[in-house]
Amino acid sequence: MTGVSAPGPAAVVVRPAARLRGELRLPGDKSISHRALMLATIAAGESRITDAGDGADVRSTAAVCAALGAEIERVGGDGGDGGDCGDAGNGGNADYRIVSPGADGLRAADTDLDCGNSGTSLRLFAGILAGLPFTSVLDGDDSLRRRPVARIIEPLRSMGAVLHARSNDSLPPVTVVGRTPLHAVDLTTPVPSAQVKSAILLAGLRADGRTTVRESVATRDHTERMLRARGVDVRTETDGGGAAVSLEGGSRVGTVSERVPGDISAAAFWLVAGATHPDAELTLGNVGVNPTRRAIIDILRAMGAGIEERPIDGRGSGYGTDAATGAADDGVGEPVADLVVAAIDEIPILCLAAALANGTTTIRGAGELRHKESDRIDGTASGLRALGVRVDVDGDDLRIHGGGALVGASTDSLDDHRLAMTFAVAGLLARGVTTVHRPGSAAVSYPGFFADLERVGS
């Protein structure tokens, strides 16, 4: 039977789908959900968040906020814990009511702050904690403990905080000894990273002057937009493809009520499925299309995908997006660095799209992928090769030779949610049966993914 079956908790079997049909409600954008909870915690008063993602990563952030002294009331959410690969059919969302004393009223936690598998949680909380007058320890699971932290330690130290980590200050756990006020800085990040930029800006709220972060390539700007919505004067100056973002220390963060749009990184799996399957009609509601995050849509269109966008109620913050039928005709050529940065989280599923397009696609400068939940360059290449795709890896560059048919195979997610979902989508499109090992990692960002996969492919 077409669809998904679970031979055990360690793997799922995906069979090819004769057609793909359905309307999907996506999980709330994970990046925005993290930031909404954090900003509500440093704002004094009551904030409400609707449709936040309910994956394990966002729950880790909510738990850290509570440990620091915010009152976190979680309402709804049925994404499950991912033990059976998720059982929700609505993407898995939750609403939150947060009442916080604000940054000046937060307290040291009684225990280490557990960020689980969430690198965003660890890096952004490091920025927040750098400006608070107590000591905290940020830790996480085995995967998080292998992810680099030197890029946040160095700039936060230059602002006056004291930070220490394992392995010559390169790996978690991270001890943060905060100070108030911090020193304002004007820094250029050696590698463009929205998480590093955000950590510095959040620390800059507690600094003694104007903090500026300069990037050679502008990264996603969720943090800047959300701070502005909360009354903080954040200024952005662009220069070619780069940007300089600055804010004044001592700025107070206000409370808001907001709805989190659907996660475009989650939408990417269905956009690729709809664009590459010969008989697909998928509708995705309320997809967040921040201009710094919509690269996946623009790339797929450049590859020949038919994608229609319909603004919701005339607002520019969210869209209902249709993924139309028809395989992409051409590869995207050789994306430059800014394209990689803009679509860094979507590279694995874009590689699958490239495998089904005609021609050869080269993705250059994707070294950031080696420091995610897994080494996504090697993991993506290994999985696609098992599925019959010719993939060349040269340092941090990937070359995918398209035009062939996928053949069902055994694939390993490496406990990485984006790899698990990429290989599962491949299973819908391949000839024969595809097994995805360690699929439960999908619950990190999309608890209901496998239920949705079963529904649209049945």
Which stretches are low in confidence, meaning pLDDT under 50 for 5 or more residues running? 79-91, 314-327
**Total helix count?**
14
Neighbour order of strands in the largest sheet: 1-2-23-22
Counting helices, strands and paired strands, the structural category is alpha+beta
- Work out the strand percent: 25-35%
Number of domains as seen in the coordinates: 2
The CATH top-level class label of the largest domain: Alpha Beta
Mean of pLDDT? 89
For the biggest sheet, the summary is: 4 strands, mixed
Report the radius of gyration as a whole number of Å. Answer: 21 Å
Distance between the termini: 8 Å
Q: Overall 3D geometry? A: globular
The named CATH superfamily of the largest domain = Enolpyruvate transferase domain
**Helical content band:** 25-40%
Quick one: how many beta strands? 23
Could you tell me the CATH topology label of the largest domain.
UDP-n-acetylglucosamine1-carboxyvinyl-transferase, Chain
Based on the coordinates given, report the CATH architecture of the largest domain.
Answer: Alpha-beta prism
